[in-house]
Amino acid sequence: MKNFKKVVLPILLFVLLVGILTGCGQSGKTSQAVTSEGSGEFKEIKIGATVGPYSDMVSKAIKPILEQKGYKVEVIEFSDYIQPNIALGNGSLNANLYQHKIYMETFAKDNNLELSVVLPVPTVPMGIYSNKYQSIDEVKEGSSVAIPNDPTNLARALLILQDVGLIKFDQNANPLTVSEKDIIENPKNLVFQPIEAAQLPRSLESTDLSAINGNFALAAGLNLQDALQLENIPADYLNLVVVNTKDLEAAYTKDIREAVESAEFEKVIDEQFQGYSKPDWMKNR
Questions:
Q1: Tens-digit pLDDT profile for the chain (285 aa)?
Q2: Coil, strand, or helix at residue 99?
Q3: Which residues form the lipid moiety-binding region (S-diacylglycerol cysteine) (predicted)?
């Protein structure tokens, strides 16, 4: 019995010790698989964007740069403006690109989310399009104008119409929330027809002018350069890269910023996203 204890017990202790050490090693490897060299930062990230120009921007101008930094990037496409923020808030996404500041702040407040801006990106401008007129100067008395029926995009459309001299609204009106009731001059007696934004491209067949969001214009096969007038996008309407506020200082967020601020990103924009309005940080460097 004494010999048995002398031989067997050390072996059992050795096996137990090896098992413990092996378990610890496997636990370390599992953690490493979802972090950046043990730093606690993601190396696999998911970026959400609406189908069309912004998912294209992520795929063509941001994803390749992040992959060079060692990330595995998955681009998740959405067909509505609600789910990208919901998915970001619940952790299904690490970032998204599709919305401007006013929408983000309103959505975050209404849905009890804490979202923060990383930086603005080149944005497809709204434009005034027509199948009838070749220039704003040709617009005749009583012409019909299709405009978005939601408050934010309506204000953008009216700003463009004022910029080209077709209307004038009260100088005390807030340009971000201006509506038809704020119009004080309409010299050509334009007739406004509020329509859901996504349907505006179709309105070209039945109206004289149509103020169309850039993403819907591109989706309908319109050329931005064919617009009678493109908007000078206010800073609050530029689309943004957005993350959860708690991740604003995360390494992957900083890497996304570096990617967007890079010369490679701007080169892709200049070559494949012509006509987009650039944010001031790109214009001024």
A1: 545 444 444 444 444 433 433 333 333 332 222 344 434 455 899 999 998 899 999 999 999 999 999 999 999 999 888 999 999 999 999 999 999 998 999 999 999 999 999 999 999 999 999 999 999 999 999 999 999 998 889 999 999 999 999 999 998 999 888 999 999 999 999 999 999 998 999 999 999 999 999 988 998 999 998 999 999 888 988 999 999 999 999 999 999 999 999 999 999 999 999 889 999 999 988
A2: strand
A3: 24
Query: Contact, 195 vs 147, CB < 8 A?
Result: yes
Q: SS3 sequence, 96-137?
A: EEEEEHHHHHHHHHHCCCCEEEEEECCECCCEEECCCCCCHH
The closest alpha carbon to 179, from 199, 198, 161, belongs to 161
Specify the pTM: 0.74
**Length of the chain as a residue count:** 285
